[in-house]
Amino acid sequence: MLKGILFGKKKNQANYKEILRISKSRTEIIKEQLHRIDPTITNQLVERIEYIKNNQPLVPRIKKRDYIIAIVINLVITILYFIIIMG
Amino acid sequence: MTKKETSSAWFTLLPTLPKDRVYGMFDMLTIQICFGIAAWFFLVGGFTGLYLPAREAIITVIFGNQIPLFLISLLALYSARYGVDQWIASRAVLGPRFNDILLIAFYLGSSAGWIAYAGLLAGNSVQKINLEFGGPGIISDPYWGPVIFAIVAILIGWYNAYLGPTALKWVSRFGAIFMVTVLLYFIYYILVITGIEKIFTEPPKGDVVADFGVPENFSRNWALALTLEWNVGLGFSWAFWYGQWTRLVKNESAAYHGTLWGWGIIAAVSGVFSALTAIIIGSFDPTDWILTAPFSFAILALILFAIANITSIMMLIYPLSITTVSRFPKLKWSMVTIIFAILGILVSIIPGVFERYNVYLAIISLLTGIYGALLTGGYLLTRGEFSVEDMYDMSKNSKYYYVGGFNLAAVIATIVGFIFYLTTFNPLTTQSMNGLFPYISAGIPTYFVTLATFLLLSKVLKQTP
């Protein structure tokens, strides 16, 4: 069991390091992909991605009642369509 | 954040933050109304009224446009949630390379045609009215009249698109209210002058048997299926155009409802109007009805067609340009907007494009319905939770890179959708390929086939976004 925990911990640490490596290189990769454009824009992009990652939701989310309104109205239109076409 | 930084998100690939969001519910509605009410709705409504009686034509215009929009309504939420351009968001579902193929071959490739159509319909109306009332000779010319007006409309549209979201907001506020008011007045006038009873008992003046060579004993089924297909084509065609607007919205509800009703039932007023004029005079072009109305109507109609199409051109050039600079960030905003204006003008000059509109719509129905189904599926699989970082990263490190930049589930579902559509209906020859078409349309079933295939394969292949 101890072996399992130790092995699991080591594996988790390795995964964590890998995640950190990818995360760190990701910014570099995006910067590299955009290296030919204005560096101000590239820096702003990286800043904004970080901001969005840490500040979700950015804007108020859609509510269930929005879906219900849409479903009801579209259902009525569908029923009307078939009544008129069948008639 | 400085003012300059805030506004730069309107003209570059930068994701919008709350400070950059300038549209509420009212603005989203007015923008989509201005975008929706244009050549496409007048023509589709006109063709619907040509082949169906009033009662069926009105409900076909509404149902045929509203239901496809409802089916793809979740597309509004991608960009509203993450502030990214639509085609950056769809990388998450399609994979960056497959996304690029659709973006370049179909979205950018076909979009100059939309600009030209908007310009030419307004130009065509101006030419006809000018000829009837003895205006300047050059504008009365059947070729140069529409072309000159289209060029002027495209240039005005380009300038407003170049100015960006704030200019578009104010133009659309006035434009949408004016257009909906005039259209409702025209519909009221038609119903009162012609008489409700006469309109609703008048048989359609077009004949699908003569025009499309369909079997006579199935003429009603064909008229219903064809007109529905044209309207569904228009309804699905908005699939490419959501995120460029919804990234500027202050909340997700406004993004959802603004696109759902603005392009749908409200803009459908223009389709209903042209369907009624087609029933009265037997022409798909509502301008022909205007010529039979009092002179004051001609002036009002001229202003209506001009505003409808110029506002639509600006609503086309802005999203086209924002998508282009998002994909090719080295390009300058001013240069990109000018390129689209020039392309629109070039297509306007080519004769014969106008007459092939129905075929064009049927093809667009095929492409956009499939794209809408894939993105709807992507949203359902993830409940709308995506990684914005991975959307921008087009390298192999991105979790949206899939296999070589292609999401196989999306690629296979697209192929299945294409095959299903083309084995059901040939939009070029308006032929039923397997006998199902007069009984089912093609666009809506293709949407469901594509969606089901995508959801199933995503689970089987374990390629969930």
In brief, what are we looking at here?
The complex is a heterodimer of chains A (87) and B (465). Chain A is an all-alpha fold and 87 residues long.
Task: Record keyword descriptors for this entry.
heterodimer; A: 87 residues; mainly alpha; 0% strand; elongated; disordered N terminus; B: 465 residues; Hydantoin permease; 24 helices; 2 strands; globular
User: Overall 3D geometry of chain B?
Assistant: globular
**Rg calculated over all Cα atoms of chain A:** 25 Å
Q: Characterize the main sheet of chain A.
A: none
Could you spell the SSE succession of chain A in H and E letters? HHH
Indicate the mean pLDDT of chain A.
77
Q: Which chains make the largest contact?
A: A-B, 35 and 45 residues
The 3D shape of chain A can be described as elongated
Q: Which regions of chain A contain 5 or more consecutive residues with pLDDT less than 50?
A: 1-9
CATH class category name of the domain at 36-355 in chain B: Mainly Alpha
Number of strands of chain B: 2
Q: Output the structural class of chain A.
A: mainly alpha
What would you call the quaternary organization?
Answer: heterodimer
Question: Strand portion of chain B, in percent?
Answer: under 5%
Biggest sheet, spatial arrangement of strands of chain B? 1-2
**What low-confidence regions of chain B span 5 or more consecutive residues with pLDDT below 50?**
1-6
